[in-house]
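1st attempt posting a full record on here, be nice pls
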Amino acid sequence: MKRLFTIIGTVCIAAVSCTERIDIELDTSDSKLIVNGSITTDTMSHCVRLIQSVPYYSPTPPPPVSNATVYIMEGSTRIDLTEDTNNPGYYYTAPNVFGKSATTYSLYIENVNIGGVSSFRAQAQMPTLLEGYQTNYLDSINVSYNKNWDGWVVNGFAKEPQSMRNYYMFRVRINDILYSDSLNNLVLIDDKFFNGNITEGAAFYFIPEKDTLKVGSKVTLELCAITKDYYQYLNEALTASRPQFPLFSPPPANPRTNVNNGALGYFTAYAIIRASYVMKDKDFLEKP
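the predicted structure (as tokens):
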């Protein structure tokens, strides 16, 4: 067994694909399909990215998997994805597609040849969402400067549902540009210690670059309701992407996958709830 290098895509958001370098123990002759895809409650073109693993010392990046037949089944409804001709390996749904509460989505990848395998499948379920979830989960946010932390804190005002166990991923956009553009910039939590509680200005996200925000900057917090399995996958991917101590420790276990036939990566379904705040003059009074 030799260590190979691959890229695990962790999140696919609109046209943005966030990737992390991860060392994984694989046989050098064993090429793997890597899947990175999602469907969310946003009405948009949802993305599935397909790439192929390459040897650890390869000077070339992982090649895209092109000309595949990719589609998602929602019950008996088939949602076809079309490859972007300008970005091989990126497959998109039509722009009018959106995910629904408690619905199961099955991803099919066909007409490929990866390690002698021609088809792959993954299944994801959208979390169960309460009626009016777009306002009930997250009411509003503000942003304040914390002198002790020497950075900006995004504070949230929300009511956490008490009828179920929930898992969350927090992301931030600044002026509609994704700030949380890597795995390490995501905030992952479950509701074990605050199930059903009302949060009045709880710290949900931290921005350490103190000069990032200006008067008039729009900060958007995205609260993403995710499944327990995807929450665990992201935490495992985080562990695998970090330096191992002591230096010559064995590599961590591969992150879990929900794609069959030996593929890597993950296909997920999640809800996105947003709240925004525009920075004001008074917000900078505490900033040195």
